[in-house]
Every structure is written in structure tokens, then in C-alpha cells.
Amino acid sequence: MFPEDKPVRSSLGGAAELSADAFDRERLLCPDSLAREELPVLCRNVTKRRALAQLVVCSGCCCGQTQRGFPEVPIDWLKALWKEEELNRSGQLTISGCLGPWDLANVVMVLLPDRSEWYGGLAGMQDYAAFVDWARLCHRTDELCDRPAGMQVRLFDRFRNRSALEVEACF
Ligand code: FES
Fold first, then answer.
1. What angle do CA 164, 137, 56 make, to 5 degrees?
2. What's CA 52's distance to the chain center, in Å?
3. CB-based contact 55:110 (threshold 8 Å)
4. HEC letters along 36-83
5. pLDDT digits 0-9 by tens, 40-85
6. Of all atoms in ligand 1, which is nearest to the CA of residue 106?
7. From the CB of 3, is ligand 1 less than 6 Å away?
8. CB 143 within 8 A of CB 91
């Protein structure tokens, strides 16, 4: 469940008020007793919109370009569903321009608190639907759930500095 927008007094800016979900001081170990300059950096700049994860769906020069032979990206379906089910309260949906690895179009990136996961070669509606089911599960449980098991075969390493075992360990 998305935390309530219950106003709480912030010690960061003096009189400024933050919503309760924006700042869980105990969890972030941001003691009220510390002066602003003594706080950890992540305690100084806080968004009200902290999410469990962010789903970035590429719709660029290759992904979704059916005239070039790539599967459709169901943008309207994704946006409408996200809005109707208020999934943005737990996970952000972003439709992006080219993410780069066009040779593995269609591409989806999942941003997690500690890393990004990259999926390529999405074959169509069923693959996007798998990510929707995952987002629904995260939303319902208010927890970061395992990514869709069926998507593991689509995982790829976007960067040069990780081993295949490290990437696979994401699951
Ligand atoms: S268009 Fe999707 S990776 Fe470039």
C-alpha cells in the first residue's frame, strides 16, 4: 500500500513539511538530532515519490517500430493500465526514447534500489504483460517482488564490468 500523505515536520529545512512517506527517518537512519550538514547525503534531498522500482520501456528508433520488423510496444495499453490501477503509487512507468542496445530490441530496463536490470528481445504483448503482472504484485504486496521468471531468458548485461554470474544472480 502506498504510504499516506500524512504531514510530518521536517528538521531539514526548518518549517518545511514533508509527507510521511517521503521520509522514514528511522529506516534511513537520519536522526532528528543531527544538523543538516551532519546528515548522510541521502537524508538531505528527499523525494515524496519514492518507488519500489521503475519500469523503463523503450520506444525509440527500433523498439516498437513494426515497420522495421520489431514487435509493437503497447504504450497506450501500458499507460492506461498504470493509471487505472494506480500502479505508479508503487512503481514508476516510463516510456523512453532509445535506451541504446537497439540490437536487442525490444528493450525494457528495470531500475531497482541497488541496480538496473536490462531485458532485450521482448517478443510482444505477452512479455510486456509479464512485467505488468510483476508490477501488480509489487503494488499489491507493497514489496519488491522477483521479476517475472519467464523474463530471465531476456536478461542481458548492458555494462562491461559484471560477470554473467553476477547478472544471473539478480534472480
Ligand atoms: S530503440 Fe530501444 S534500444 Fe534503441
1. 55
2. 6
3. yes
4. HHHCCHHHCCCCCCCCCEEEEEECCCCCCCHHHCCCCCCHHHHHHHHH
5. 777 777 787 889 999 999 999 999 999 999 999 999 999 999 999 9
6. 2
7. no
8. no
pLDDT in tens, 8-30: 344 444 434 554 444 555 556 67
Residue located nearest, by CA, to atom 3 of ligand 1 = 102
Angle at 119 between CA 157 and CA 132, to 5 degrees: 150
CA of 88 to the centre of ligand 1 (A): 23
Q: How far is CA 104 from CA 1, 23, 58, in A?
A: 35, 38, 11
- Which atom of ligand 1 is least distant from the CA of 96? 2
CA 57 and chain centroid, separation: 10
d(CA 57, CA 99): 9
State the architecture of 53-168 in CATH terms.
3-Layer(aba) Sandwich (3.40)
C-beta 60 within 6 A of ligand 1: yes
How remote is the CA of residue 131 from the centroid of ligand 1, in Å?
A: 18
User: What is residue 104's three-state secondary structure?
Assistant: helix
Does the C-beta of 39 come closer than 6 Å to ligand 1?
no
Domain ranges of the chain: 7-43, 53-168
